[in-house]
Amino acid sequence: MDGHLKVNRCWKAHFEKMGKEKSKKAAAKAPKEEVPPPPKPLVTFHLCGTDELQICGVLAAFNLLVSSLPSPAPFAIVPLKAEQVIAAMGSRAPKNCGVMMTDSLGRGTPLFGLKQCLSGLAPPLPSQVESSNVSQWMGWCESVLVPAVNKPDKLLEKAASTLSSHLSTTPTGRISDRRSLTIADIYAITTLMPIIPTFKPLTDPSALTSFLSTVPQSPLFSKTFSDSGRFITEKAPSDGLLSTLRGIFSSALYSTFPEAPELGISIMVTQTKDPKNGEYQCNNAMELFKKLPKPNAFKAPRDVALALTSEISHPLIEKLDVAGPGFINITLSTTFLTDKLKNLVVSGDPRPAKPKTAPKKVVVDFSSPNIAKDMHVGHLRSTIIGESVCRILEYTHHPTDRVNHVGDWGTQFGMLIQYLLESFPKIAEGDMTGVDIKDLTAFYKAAKIKFDEDEVFKKVAQQNVVKLQGGDEACRKIWQLLCDISRAEFEKVYKRLGVDVKECGESFYNEMIPGVIEELTAMNLVVPDGGAKCIFVPEYRIPLMVQKSDGGFGYDSTDMAAISYRLRELKAGQVVYITDFTQGDHFMMIFDAAKRAGWWNATSHKITHIGFGTVCGEDGKRFKTRSGDTVRLVDLLDESVRRMEESLLERNKEGKGSIPEGEIRSTAEKIGYGAIKYFDLSRNPTSNYIFSYDAMLDTRGNTGVYLMFAKARLGSIINKAREAGVDVADLEKAGGLELDLGHVTERSLAIEILKFPDVIENVLEALAPHKVCEYLYNMSLVATSFVTECRIMENGVPNKSRLLLCSIAGNVMQACFHLLSIECPDRI
Ligand code: ARG
Q: What's an example of a GO molecular-function annotation for this chain (predicted)?
């Protein structure tokens, strides 16, 4: 410790000298040797932020400052990966700490905010400054900090004496009263303070303004900005209940127990099952008690819990109780809940706000059926999951490229072309008379039989593949015809399912493949193997084959070219592939090879394969028709709608339904398709499932149909109120309404609604539609018990607060249906 003090004194001497020669003239005249040689940096500041402009602005300003100082600068600034700090601090980090500093000595916690660092220097920052942006901070610098540091001597002395007295009484180097400054703070003060006046423009507030405006134009700033990917996270924290609570508790944890990160402790907050134990609970006290270095002031985990709670005061929290051995039970504040809900009413839309920095593009490769073959139930999964994944990304403001990587270039075309030529000989001259292949599947089957049985046919067919890929015009024409027929069939399915995907099939990459192979060969990634060209991937027995021994290109070649194109031409920051799980190894090898080629790395890109499980029949085996054929997707959709139509007509006959005859078909389509989608999306994609119309069309339980009923029920209440003269839309517009959460079901519904941002954050992270389903189902249960237990119409007069709750819940449910691409009928 003494050593550090000496170094500090040495700096003090250095700056005192510098201070005396402050004026430019004097500085110019002063012989260089008179200034004591500057020692090594005293402190390394780790700077971290999550807002690109904010962190870049501050970092660039610091860098400019450093570059204007005699070399070496007394402090070094190292950008810290935001993830590291977030991991240590929970979600509070990015939002409330515009700039965070930790010291290079590893002391203290990431909680050193700018506020702490500078609080010995000047009047405290206004409380909002720590969560403010760089311009607010700069404004504070200009109006408060700079005038204060213009009288540096006293402050310097004060800081130095605080430091020495603390160092002499605190052997660990940590200042015992955790509310006061830490060593890093003192270092910051003693180093920063004398420096600031030596930086000429900073001594003059008006020059400061111009300095600040020149920062963004400086090359240093652009460099910092372009480097920013390394230390900035794009993830903004949600303001959901759970995230907020985690933030509050994390910050209390780190200020009460600064050693928590070193002990590997991070805050766990969960929702409780029984409201007797509060609404949420934090259970870290027991673990903390066990891990805290002994001796310490705590006799039992309860004391730890009490110490933690004594640090907490936040408008979200009504009450904290320490129960049992040290559980912290959290009761939320009703005022806070109602205020949050009112905000939702005013904005009318639960969608998260646009992040300040636009997220990078995401390429989603989904659906991707094969030309001339039917779309089967496996493609159904890819199509449904893919559409939902795209909606999740777009809802959270990510630009997406929805790519249909259709199989339009495989070896099957050789035999199809040959079979067509033989069946319709005039086709080669462009005469299409009599060509009728609406049923491509039957045509494909016939060609395949011939291919397997007739050696001569097989040979010619194989030559056709080479001709096609080499650009032979006749082959291309026939190929185009086949693609057009298939495309029209695929489009019909997409239209029925409300799916939007742009075709960019295997053939698109054909021209790029030779260049890609050449590049990979130059990197020594490609190895000749029995006449073929292969990329070996550690831990996989079979290599990727980028060129076959006959010179042809296959599935692997195309995918290498495709990933290169997506990362380097389309500049995607994230690529998602959605296929059945059996292709997992193929993609792992493609990702690995692309990484070794330097086309992506894990810090700047995210590449995922969502591999889904098999759809099985009632017998638990792969879903087949009675005759053993694969099930055609269109037949499956037809059957679901047919059954739903039948059941709606039945309900009408029994007097239970209210759908006019003319709307039965369109309603049955919405429910039928929605039920299939929900059945698929509601489980973890990796699991297999048994396809069952009875299960998916059930009106009870966790099914799409039940959820649509629950939503329609809210809608019909709103309609009734309108008929009684109260239009909820008018209430929402008028504002200024009181919301009453007195009944337990009202309160539970409010909490469920306010969980939405947490859910979205989770769903986006994992690209997991099943988590949307989980939430939607819970919401339906809570909303149903609310409308069952709370009368919304009392003697024909609607209760306005309850009506508003119905409306907000309905909006949040609607947002979930949208994410699942389920169109919900207004009436059932
Ligand atoms: N056409 C393939 C199939 O039906 C799926 C393609 C997936 N995408 C890709 N880039 N390989 O299995």
A: arginine-tRNA ligase activity
User: Which range among 114-118, 241-245, 495-499 shows the weakest confidence by mean pLDDT?
Assistant: 114-118
Regarding the beta carbon of 562 and ligand 1, being less than 6 Å apart is answered yes
Give the residue, out of 382, 401, 581, 583, with the most ligand 1 atoms within 8 A of its beta carbon, to mutate for a pocket test: 583
Structure tokens at 827: 């009436």
Q: Please report the pLDDT score of residue 262 as a whole number.
A: 67
Cα 759 to middle of ligand 1, angstroms:
30
Atom of ligand 1 nearest to the CA of 577: 8
How many CA atoms within 13 Å lie on the side-chain side of 400? 25
Taking CA atoms, 659 is separated from 52, 453, 593, in Å, by: 53, 56, 56
Q: Which two tokens stand for residue 801?
A: 């607060």
Q: What is the rounded average pLDDT for all residues in the chain?
A: 76
Report d(CA 404, CA 407) in Å as an integer: 9
Residue type present at position 698: D
* CB of 365 shorter than 6 A to ligand 1: yes
Nearest CA to ligand 1 atom 11: 559
Which single residue is written with the structure tokens 């001594």? 203
- Side-chain-side CA neighbours of residue 170 (13 Å): 16
Least confident of 432-446, 586-600, 686-700, 800-814: 432-446
Where are the extended beta strands (E) located within 296-349? 317-323, 327-332
Strand partners, 534: 527, 545
The per-residue pLDDT for range 526-548, each reduced to its tens digit, is: 999 999 999 999 888 899 999 99
Cα distances (Å, whole numbers) of residue 482 to 276, 448, 487, 543, 727: 66, 15, 9, 32, 55
Binding site membership of 368 for ligand 1 (Cβ less than 6 Å):
yes
Edge to edge, the sheet with strand 317-323 lists 269-271, 280-282, 327-332, 317-323
DSSP-based three-state secondary structure for 618: coil
- For ligand 1, atom 9: residue with the closest CA: 405
Do 776 and 817 contact (CB within 8 A), yes or no? Answer: yes
- Beta strands 280-282 and 527-529 are unpaired
**Nearest alpha carbon, ligand 1 atom 6:** 368
Q: Which residues contact 431 (CB under 8 A, 6 or more apart)?
A: none
CA–CA dist 76, 42 (Å, integer): 8
Nearest-atom number in ligand 1 for the CA of 555 is: 11
405 C-beta closer than 6 A to ligand 1:
yes
Residues contacting residue 35 through CB under 8 Å, at least 6 positions apart: 14, 17, 18, 70
Q: Establish whether residue 505 lines the binding site of ligand 1, counting it when its CB lies within 6 angstroms of any ligand atom.
A: no
Which residue from 273, 69, 47, 300 is spatially nearest to 191, judged by alpha carbons?
69
H helix or E strand, kind and range, residue 779: helix 769-789
Give the residue, out of 579, 591, 633, with the most ligand 1 atoms within 8 A of its beta carbon, to mutate for a pocket test. 579
N-terminal to C-terminal alpha carbon distance within the chain: 75
By the 8 A CB rule, do 384 and 640 touch? no
Question: In whole angstroms, what is the distance from residue 809 CA to residue 811 CA?
Answer: 5
DSSP conformational letter for 145 = I
How remote is the CA of residue 523 from the centroid of ligand 1, in Å?
A: 27
pLDDT digits (tens, 9 = 90+) for 401-449: 999 999 998 888 999 999 988 887 777 666 766 666 567 778 888 899 9
Q: Which two tokens stand for residue 65?
A: 């400052």
